[in-house]
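Usage example:
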Amino acid sequence: MRRKEPPPLTLPPLNCQLALDALTFFIRRETERAGFDGVVLGLSGGIDSALVAYLAARALGPKRVTGLLMPYRSSSKGSVADAKKIVKALGIRHHLLDITAAVDGFESGLMTAPDIRRAGRLGNAMARLRMVALFDYSLAHRAMVLGTSNKSEIALGYATLFGDSASAVNPIGDLYKSDVYALSRHLKIPAALIDKAPSADLWEGQTDEGEIGFRYADMDPVLHQLLDRRETPAAVIARGAAPELVGFLSKKMLAMHYKRRIPVIAKLDTRTFGVDFLYAKDILS
Amino acid sequence: MRAAVIQSDCFLGDITRNLSTHLRLAKEAVKGGATLAVFPELSLSGYLLEDRVKDIALTARAAAALFDDAGLPDTVVGVGFPEKTRGAIYNSYALIRCGAKKAELLGVQRKINLPTYGMFDEARHFRAGSSLCAYELPGGATAAILICEDMWHPALSVSLAQLPDGMPHLLIVPAASPSRGYRGKRPANLEGWEHNAEYLARVYGASTLNAQRVGVEDSLIFAGGSVATDHDGVMKRADLFKEEILFVDIDIEALSRTRAKAPVVSAHDRELLRSLFA
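Running the assembly step on the lines above writes:
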């Protein structure tokens, strides 16, 4: 008798309507409870920030949502055009803030040893300057900064620490990239944004999947098994996943954990922030 | 009698503000004909209290006194709160009889099974309760309280069924269950709650009133989805993501007839149970 092939690993489909209801409820409550008038987010022209903009507009109404479009000199022209499509489709507020001059200022005034790992450092600086603009807007306009990193990126640590990883509240951080696509289709976000290759858009031709070396469609079912189901790497490989993919993801998830922790404080006294000073952010004094 | 299962939200750590929500909703329940209004677990304080527990815990007597002059005559309210005693803090639930003036404490149930897995760390902040009993409500119906996790421990319902008067008529199940599992028809945690409520009703012939919290505390989304069953297990469900009151009519005569027809529980052989548990 021939042995049956194991069923292919798949990510069980998200119940999009249910997730939509939960996330709009979440955004509404968290915005109200924190005492903000509205929310602000960086609109890159990519699908993650587009989805967050759609969720926020549903939750709060478009007038309480602001998108900051923050291109750099080398950003693809299509990115700004795609971000503008979102602004127009939703009727949200927006500002076009070109970060080129700020990045140039960083390069000329703040960068030591400019030749070492230059491209990556400039990419980080761009992400962090966008963060600066978002949190500055937050204070000026009483708008809460919404994060736009998805669960796949967070698992891989595919983000700039204190850059795009920084936010007050992230509604999509527990959705895999595949879920982001599914929910975006459910919300009828323009197909052009869904179909284009995911990219950090830090330099010409950059794509997530080119840089990471694996496709989200292959990574997400494996991440789901390792992360949510707590399957062992061996068990996931036995179910047909590529061993190099499983090895890569299981290592990366822990290696990048430092990006998910607030600065670690050396514990000396009885109660230490981040260790045993235990309060929810939403606690009322 | 008519009971109201109240799916309420609250402000984390703000008992004064939450009391006014309780009064507003209890009055609405009374207007709908209810004489019993049950709120979710830790309804007066919110769930994710952590280190704040010590600062806001109150005695059961003080919790009852909050309902003095509440304007809810002849109404029993069930409310969740962090209970302070001389030496400990419990995750408790009080049945309070509101009168024309002074409110009276009918009983307090302390949560027995404090979850410490996954996102939960209750045993760090609360001491576990160690007793379970039934309370008689005005009008003669009896009720026991299974706080959240306690509903999932069959030993507790089995032991309730061994009480001298048998299983109480009502099982009040206050809960604050953070929603998780969005890949099915309903949040996966709620599916479990519904199955359990229906199971308890069908097996024991008890009306099961599961009041779920609705709201958000940091990452946790309490989706609501409260359920109320009659003694046959016929279920009413509250909507998700909103405040709601579910009304359920409890007919003690009909309940007794059902239990007589299918006396599953009364047929338990106590000696056998004892030897099985030993």
